Amino acid sequence: MSGYPVDPNLARALKPPSQAPWVLTVLALFAGGGGAAYMWTEAGKAKTEAAAAEVRAKAAETKRAELAPLPEKVEKLEAENADLKTAKEALARDVEAKTGELEQLKGTADKLQAQMKDEIAKGDIHLTESGGRLRVDLVDKLLFESGEATIAKRGENVLSRVGAVLAQIDDKTIQVSGHTDNLPLGDKLTEKFPSNWELSAARAVTVVRFLVEKANVPPQRLVASGYGEWSPIASNKTASGRARNRRIEILLTPALAPKLIARGKLEKEAKGKAEVAAAPAKPDKPDKADKPRVAEARTGHHKAKK
Question: From the centroid of its chain, how far is CA 110?
Fold first, then answer.
Protein backbone atom coordinates (compact mmCIF):
# COMPACT_ATOMS: atom_id res chain seq x y z
CA MET A 1 0.00 0.00 0.00
CA SER A 2 2.89 2.29 0.46
CA GLY A 3 3.47 2.05 -3.20
CA TYR A 4 0.32 3.99 -4.05
CA PRO A 5 0.23 7.71 -3.71
CA VAL A 6 -1.91 9.09 -0.80
CA ASP A 7 -4.30 12.02 -1.23
CA PRO A 8 -3.59 14.49 1.58
CA ASN A 9 -7.23 15.67 1.77
CA LEU A 10 -8.43 12.10 2.10
CA ALA A 11 -5.85 11.51 4.82
CA ARG A 12 -7.09 14.50 6.76
CA ALA A 13 -10.70 13.37 6.40
CA LEU A 14 -9.92 9.89 7.66
CA LYS A 15 -7.85 11.18 10.67
CA PRO A 16 -9.66 10.75 14.05
CA PRO A 17 -11.05 14.04 15.47
CA SER A 18 -9.00 15.78 18.14
CA GLN A 19 -10.25 15.77 21.83
CA ALA A 20 -9.04 19.31 22.48
CA PRO A 21 -12.33 21.17 21.65
CA TRP A 22 -14.29 19.05 24.10
CA VAL A 23 -11.77 19.57 26.76
CA LEU A 24 -11.83 23.32 26.14
CA THR A 25 -15.64 23.31 26.24
CA VAL A 26 -15.71 21.45 29.54
CA LEU A 27 -13.09 23.74 30.99
CA ALA A 28 -15.05 26.72 29.74
CA LEU A 29 -18.20 25.41 31.41
CA PHE A 30 -16.39 24.81 34.69
CA ALA A 31 -14.79 28.20 34.48
CA GLY A 32 -18.14 29.81 33.73
CA GLY A 33 -19.77 28.06 36.71
CA GLY A 34 -17.01 29.16 39.04
CA GLY A 35 -17.22 32.71 37.72
CA ALA A 36 -20.95 32.76 38.19
CA ALA A 37 -20.60 31.54 41.77
CA TYR A 38 -17.95 34.14 42.42
CA MET A 39 -20.09 36.85 40.87
CA TRP A 40 -23.09 35.70 42.93
CA THR A 41 -21.05 35.88 46.12
CA GLU A 42 -19.71 39.29 45.25
CA ALA A 43 -23.20 40.51 44.41
CA GLY A 44 -24.44 39.32 47.80
CA LYS A 45 -21.62 41.11 49.56
CA ALA A 46 -22.36 44.28 47.62
CA LYS A 47 -26.06 44.04 48.53
CA THR A 48 -25.23 43.56 52.21
CA GLU A 49 -22.83 46.47 52.16
CA ALA A 50 -25.45 48.62 50.40
CA ALA A 51 -28.04 47.74 53.07
CA ALA A 52 -25.55 48.54 55.85
CA ALA A 53 -24.70 51.81 54.15
CA GLU A 54 -28.39 52.67 53.99
CA VAL A 55 -28.78 51.94 57.71
CA ARG A 56 -25.77 54.13 58.49
CA ALA A 57 -27.17 56.88 56.30
CA LYS A 58 -30.54 56.76 58.10
CA ALA A 59 -28.78 56.79 61.49
CA ALA A 60 -26.71 59.77 60.40
CA GLU A 61 -29.87 61.55 59.23
CA THR A 62 -31.60 60.83 62.54
CA LYS A 63 -28.57 62.13 64.45
CA ARG A 64 -28.48 65.21 62.28
CA ALA A 65 -32.18 65.80 62.96
CA GLU A 66 -31.55 65.41 66.67
CA LEU A 67 -28.63 67.81 66.60
CA ALA A 68 -30.41 70.36 64.43
CA PRO A 69 -32.48 71.92 67.29
CA LEU A 70 -29.59 71.62 69.76
CA PRO A 71 -29.39 75.39 70.43
CA GLU A 72 -33.11 75.43 71.29
CA LYS A 73 -32.67 72.44 73.58
CA VAL A 74 -29.72 74.06 75.29
CA GLU A 75 -31.71 77.26 75.78
CA LYS A 76 -34.63 75.28 77.20
CA LEU A 77 -32.37 73.36 79.57
CA GLU A 78 -30.76 76.59 80.73
CA ALA A 79 -34.19 78.10 81.41
CA GLU A 80 -35.25 74.97 83.33
CA ASN A 81 -32.01 75.11 85.30
CA ALA A 82 -32.67 78.75 86.18
CA ASP A 83 -36.20 77.85 87.31
CA LEU A 84 -34.87 75.01 89.45
CA LYS A 85 -32.30 77.32 91.02
CA THR A 86 -35.00 79.87 91.82
CA ALA A 87 -37.22 77.14 93.29
CA LYS A 88 -34.30 75.83 95.36
CA GLU A 89 -33.58 79.30 96.73
CA ALA A 90 -37.27 79.80 97.54
CA LEU A 91 -37.36 76.42 99.27
CA ALA A 92 -34.27 77.32 101.31
CA ARG A 93 -35.94 80.56 102.39
CA ASP A 94 -39.10 78.64 103.24
CA VAL A 95 -37.15 76.13 105.34
CA GLU A 96 -35.38 78.97 107.13
CA ALA A 97 -38.68 80.72 107.79
CA LYS A 98 -40.26 77.48 109.00
CA THR A 99 -37.33 76.86 111.33
CA GLY A 100 -37.77 80.35 112.75
CA GLU A 101 -41.51 79.75 113.22
CA LEU A 102 -40.87 76.51 115.09
CA GLU A 103 -38.36 78.23 117.36
CA GLN A 104 -40.86 81.01 118.11
CA LEU A 105 -43.57 78.44 118.75
CA LYS A 106 -41.34 76.62 121.21
CA GLY A 107 -40.58 79.93 122.90
CA THR A 108 -44.32 80.60 123.27
CA ALA A 109 -44.88 77.11 124.69
CA ASP A 110 -42.07 77.66 127.20
CA LYS A 111 -43.61 80.97 128.33
CA LEU A 112 -47.03 79.34 128.77
CA GLN A 113 -45.41 76.50 130.69
CA ALA A 114 -43.87 79.04 133.07
CA GLN A 115 -47.08 81.10 133.45
CA MET A 116 -49.45 78.16 133.91
CA LYS A 117 -47.23 75.60 135.66
CA ASP A 118 -49.67 75.07 138.59
CA GLU A 119 -52.68 74.48 136.35
CA ILE A 120 -50.59 72.24 134.04
CA ALA A 121 -49.40 70.23 137.04
CA LYS A 122 -53.03 69.71 138.13
CA GLY A 123 -54.06 68.60 134.63
CA ASP A 124 -56.42 71.56 134.13
CA ILE A 125 -54.37 72.87 131.20
CA HIS A 126 -52.78 70.75 128.48
CA LEU A 127 -50.20 72.02 125.97
CA THR A 128 -49.64 70.19 122.68
CA GLU A 129 -47.18 71.06 119.89
CA SER A 130 -47.71 69.38 116.53
CA GLY A 131 -47.17 70.27 112.86
CA GLY A 132 -46.13 73.84 113.55
CA ARG A 133 -49.19 74.43 115.74
CA LEU A 134 -49.57 74.97 119.47
CA ARG A 135 -52.78 73.92 121.21
CA VAL A 136 -53.79 75.00 124.70
CA ASP A 137 -56.71 73.08 126.24
CA LEU A 138 -58.34 74.63 129.32
CA VAL A 139 -61.00 72.59 131.11
CA ASP A 140 -64.25 74.49 131.44
CA LYS A 141 -64.25 74.56 135.26
CA LEU A 142 -61.24 76.89 135.17
CA LEU A 143 -63.22 79.54 133.34
CA PHE A 144 -66.95 78.98 133.75
CA GLU A 145 -69.56 77.90 136.20
CA SER A 146 -71.64 74.92 135.09
CA GLY A 147 -73.95 75.83 132.22
CA GLU A 148 -72.71 79.44 132.09
CA ALA A 149 -70.96 81.43 129.37
CA THR A 150 -69.80 84.23 131.68
CA ILE A 151 -66.19 84.02 132.82
CA ALA A 152 -65.82 83.38 136.55
CA LYS A 153 -63.37 85.29 138.74
CA ARG A 154 -60.84 82.45 138.78
CA GLY A 155 -61.20 82.27 135.01
CA GLU A 156 -60.28 85.93 134.65
CA ASN A 157 -56.99 85.31 136.44
CA VAL A 158 -56.18 82.33 134.23
CA LEU A 159 -57.06 84.11 130.99
CA SER A 160 -55.10 87.21 131.99
CA ARG A 161 -51.93 85.15 132.29
CA VAL A 162 -52.60 83.30 129.04
CA GLY A 163 -53.42 86.57 127.30
CA ALA A 164 -50.17 88.17 128.46
CA VAL A 165 -48.29 85.54 126.44
CA LEU A 166 -50.61 85.63 123.42
CA ALA A 167 -50.35 89.43 123.16
CA GLN A 168 -46.62 89.10 122.42
CA ILE A 169 -47.21 86.95 119.34
CA ASP A 170 -47.56 88.84 116.06
CA ASP A 171 -47.32 86.10 113.41
CA LYS A 172 -49.97 83.57 114.44
CA THR A 173 -53.70 83.17 114.01
CA ILE A 174 -55.34 82.40 117.36
CA GLN A 175 -58.46 80.29 117.14
CA VAL A 176 -60.56 80.04 120.29
CA SER A 177 -63.06 77.19 120.14
CA GLY A 178 -65.65 76.01 122.64
CA HIS A 179 -66.33 72.29 123.23
CA THR A 180 -68.85 70.38 125.34
CA ASP A 181 -69.58 66.78 126.28
CA ASN A 182 -72.48 64.90 124.68
CA LEU A 183 -74.94 65.25 127.54
CA PRO A 184 -78.04 67.26 126.60
CA LEU A 185 -78.68 70.54 128.38
CA GLY A 186 -81.40 70.72 131.01
CA ASP A 187 -84.72 72.42 130.41
CA LYS A 188 -83.61 75.54 132.30
CA LEU A 189 -80.47 75.96 130.18
CA THR A 190 -82.22 75.32 126.83
CA GLU A 191 -84.15 78.55 127.32
CA LYS A 192 -80.82 80.36 126.96
CA PHE A 193 -78.83 77.86 124.87
CA PRO A 194 -81.02 75.66 122.64
CA SER A 195 -78.16 73.13 122.21
CA ASN A 196 -74.51 72.48 122.97
CA TRP A 197 -73.68 74.37 119.76
CA GLU A 198 -74.92 77.64 121.21
CA LEU A 199 -73.26 77.07 124.60
CA SER A 200 -69.86 76.25 123.06
CA ALA A 201 -70.00 79.19 120.64
CA ALA A 202 -71.07 81.64 123.37
CA ARG A 203 -68.16 80.57 125.58
CA ALA A 204 -65.67 80.95 122.71
CA VAL A 205 -66.91 84.46 121.93
CA THR A 206 -66.71 85.42 125.61
CA VAL A 207 -63.06 84.29 125.80
CA VAL A 208 -62.18 86.16 122.60
CA ARG A 209 -63.74 89.37 123.91
CA PHE A 210 -61.84 89.02 127.18
CA LEU A 211 -58.51 88.51 125.39
CA VAL A 212 -59.11 91.62 123.26
CA GLU A 213 -60.51 93.90 125.97
CA LYS A 214 -58.51 92.79 129.02
CA ALA A 215 -55.30 91.26 127.65
CA ASN A 216 -54.76 93.53 124.60
CA VAL A 217 -54.53 90.67 122.10
CA PRO A 218 -55.01 92.13 118.56
CA PRO A 219 -58.57 91.28 117.45
CA GLN A 220 -57.58 90.69 113.81
CA ARG A 221 -55.65 87.61 114.88
CA LEU A 222 -58.50 86.03 116.82
CA VAL A 223 -61.18 83.62 115.62
CA ALA A 224 -64.10 82.30 117.68
CA SER A 225 -65.83 79.01 116.89
CA GLY A 226 -68.16 76.56 118.58
CA TYR A 227 -67.86 72.79 118.04
CA GLY A 228 -70.48 71.66 120.53
CA GLU A 229 -70.05 67.96 121.34
CA TRP A 230 -68.69 67.01 117.92
CA SER A 231 -64.92 67.21 118.44
CA PRO A 232 -64.16 65.18 121.59
CA ILE A 233 -60.64 64.38 122.76
CA ALA A 234 -61.72 61.71 125.26
CA SER A 235 -64.52 59.18 125.69
CA ASN A 236 -67.89 60.56 126.76
CA LYS A 237 -68.67 57.26 128.47
CA THR A 238 -66.83 58.23 131.65
CA ALA A 239 -67.07 61.25 133.92
CA SER A 240 -63.36 62.02 133.54
CA GLY A 241 -63.62 61.81 129.76
CA ARG A 242 -66.61 64.15 129.68
CA ALA A 243 -64.72 66.58 131.93
CA ARG A 244 -61.85 66.71 129.42
CA ASN A 245 -64.23 67.24 126.52
CA ARG A 246 -65.80 70.28 128.23
CA ARG A 247 -63.04 72.70 127.38
CA ILE A 248 -61.88 75.89 125.71
CA GLU A 249 -59.25 75.20 123.09
CA ILE A 250 -56.80 77.92 122.01
CA LEU A 251 -55.03 76.95 118.81
CA LEU A 252 -52.06 78.90 117.44
CA THR A 253 -51.44 78.38 113.73
CA PRO A 254 -49.19 80.16 111.19
CA ALA A 255 -50.73 83.29 109.70
CA LEU A 256 -50.78 81.90 106.14
CA ALA A 257 -51.95 84.88 104.10
CA PRO A 258 -48.94 87.17 104.69
CA LYS A 259 -46.55 84.27 104.06
CA LEU A 260 -48.21 83.45 100.75
CA ILE A 261 -48.13 87.07 99.64
CA ALA A 262 -44.47 87.38 100.53
CA ARG A 263 -43.61 84.17 98.68
CA GLY A 264 -45.53 85.28 95.59
CA LYS A 265 -43.67 88.59 95.63
CA LEU A 266 -40.31 86.84 95.91
CA GLU A 267 -41.12 84.51 93.02
CA LYS A 268 -42.22 87.43 90.86
CA GLU A 269 -39.03 89.34 91.63
CA ALA A 270 -36.91 86.25 90.87
CA LYS A 271 -38.67 85.82 87.54
CA GLY A 272 -38.07 89.47 86.73
CA LYS A 273 -34.37 89.13 87.49
CA ALA A 274 -34.14 86.09 85.20
CA GLU A 275 -35.78 88.04 82.38
CA VAL A 276 -33.35 90.93 82.86
CA ALA A 277 -30.39 88.54 82.78
CA ALA A 278 -31.64 86.97 79.54
CA ALA A 279 -32.37 90.32 77.83
CA PRO A 280 -29.65 92.25 75.96
CA ALA A 281 -27.79 94.70 78.16
CA LYS A 282 -28.61 98.41 77.87
CA PRO A 283 -25.70 100.32 79.41
CA ASP A 284 -27.24 103.73 78.79
CA LYS A 285 -30.32 102.90 80.95
CA PRO A 286 -29.26 100.15 83.34
CA ASP A 287 -32.18 100.30 85.75
CA LYS A 288 -35.09 101.19 83.49
CA ALA A 289 -36.21 97.59 83.09
CA ASP A 290 -36.45 97.11 86.83
CA LYS A 291 -38.90 99.93 87.55
CA PRO A 292 -42.06 98.37 86.03
CA ARG A 293 -41.46 95.14 87.99
CA VAL A 294 -41.03 96.98 91.27
CA ALA A 295 -44.22 98.92 90.64
CA GLU A 296 -46.02 95.71 89.69
CA ALA A 297 -44.85 93.94 92.84
CA ARG A 298 -45.97 96.84 95.02
CA THR A 299 -49.34 97.01 93.27
CA GLY A 300 -49.87 93.29 93.75
CA HIS A 301 -48.93 93.60 97.41
CA HIS A 302 -51.47 96.38 98.06
CA LYS A 303 -54.18 94.50 96.24
CA ALA A 304 -53.51 91.40 98.32
CA LYS A 305 -53.73 93.43 101.55
CA LYS A 306 -57.15 94.76 100.56
Answer: 32
Distances from the Cα of 99 to the Cα of 103, 188, 221, angstroms: 6, 51, 22
Listed in sequence order, the DSSP H helices in the chain are: 8-14, 20-67, 70-115, 117-122, 140-143, 153-166, 187-190, 196-213, 239-245, 256-278, 290-305
What is the SS3 assignment for 279? coil
**pTM greater than the 0.90 cutoff:** no
pLDDT at 18 > cutoff 70: no
On whether the CB atoms of residues 267 and 90 are closer than 8 A, the answer is yes
Are 249 and 136 spatial neighbours (Cβ–Cβ below 8 Å)? yes
Under the phi-then-psi rule, with left for phi > 0, alpha for psi from -120 to 50, and beta for the rest, what region is 150?
beta
In the three-class reduction of DSSP (H, G, I as helix; E, B as strand; rest coil), residue 288 is classed as coil
The residue type of 92 is A
pLDDT in tens, 145-200: 999 999 999 999 999 999 999 999 988 999 999 999 999 999 889 999 999 999 99
Domain regions of the chain by residue span:
97-254, 256-306
Does pLDDT of 284 surpass 90?
no
**Residue 140: CB partners within 8 Å, gap ≥ 6?**
203, 246, 247, 248
Q: What is the CATH number of domain 97-254?
A: 3.30.1330.60
Among 63-72, 115-124, 187-196, 261-270, the least confident range? 261-270
Give the count of beta carbons closer than 10 Å to the beta carbon of residue 259. 15
Choose among 139, 150, 137: nearest CA to 193: 150
Q: What is the pLDDT, as a whole number, of residue 5? A: 61
